[in-house]
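MODEL INPUT / OUTPUT PAIR
PAIR INDEX: 1
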Amino acid sequence: MGFQPNNYVNLFGSQITTTTTTTTTTLNVITSGLQLYVDASNSASYSGSGSTWYDLSGNGYNGTLSGSTAYSSANGGYISLQSNTGYIDFGLSSQGSSSSAYTFGCWFNTPIVGDTQLMVRGNDSSGSYPLGWNLAGVAVSGGFNLSIITSVPSIAQYNAVYSTAYSTNTWYYYIGVWNPSAGNLKVYTNGVLRVTQSIAGTVLRNSNTGWNTSTGASRYNVSLGSMIVYNTALSDAQILSNFNTTKTRFGY
């Protein structure tokens, strides 16, 4: 059953409880600073059909599925973006503040090794640099990247690179953290901090779209079990906690 207008969300400590007219589901994810959360294993987020992936954070940043997409009930449920045409757009209002810290990422599985944009803030094809995207988590042939374009103190691009190749048809938990007050980018896979990169930028370049999986011309074949965004920098322990409470369905 889809997430209906009479649903409501209650926050209790480190758990989020979503109540609908028919079911109550407790999600063991950190809730402080939670901005957006979709999970294909939860019927309140995705029923198994339709073009809307409902946000469980309570903020209403629902994702719209476009192009070639498919749902599978394997691994508890996931959504595949196919034929290099499928994508998910959470809408302009989901972008949040340009000066906020962010923790974001997803459970993903891809059939190919290559450049795959997993989660992006902004649109990657609205124009040439420095237009377009401003915060992106990317799986590349050599590993995992977290890339950012800032406008203060100057327009510049920074990258945090974890140079360890990933395997095809394998589930990974990718998380990127941008912390402007600490002046760094961090890349995590499967709950473990892999790299920290110092940067000078403190404000993201302006964005013409919110969070998405690449709404522009560059689209990728990838399966997504869940996607999550926080408007704060989670700690190592919090990221590991989220991995541990969601890993079982993905074979860990």
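PAIR INDEX: 2
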Amino acid sequence: MTETTETAETPVPRPTYELQQFPEKLAVIKLPAGAEIPSWAESSSLFSITATATETSLVCAGRSVPTKVTGAKGLTGFAVMGELDNNVAGVLSELLAPLAEEEISVFTISTHDTNWFLVPVLAAETAAEAWRGRGHTVALAVPVPPARRSKKK
């Protein structure tokens, strides 16, 4: 994170961030509460399971999601590079504001180290330009290959 922007009245530092744009398409899938993770769910640069009392949501590679499964498909993932300080306020608002101004819908996921932003594939370049317009850096990421599942013998 670097400090950059100022206002006309008083210099107020605005944080800027470096983001990675991942090339694979992701999906956010809705499953029933307490559902098992389906065998078709593949890991990608982001794989997340979130369970509440009313639903289970799964973020996974979009390539293997059956067409009849309910969810948001065709999403591009962006991640803030580096480990974020969990005590710093305003990270999400700083990065969501430009997307809201461009009327881009977004799913957010926070991990211990960073924040992820999932936007429709067709809006990915607009999102990247909106962030660049605020002084943030967006670079293409090299995805980590999915972990291979060991075969049971």
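PAIR 2 NOTE: The longest helix spans residues 91-101.
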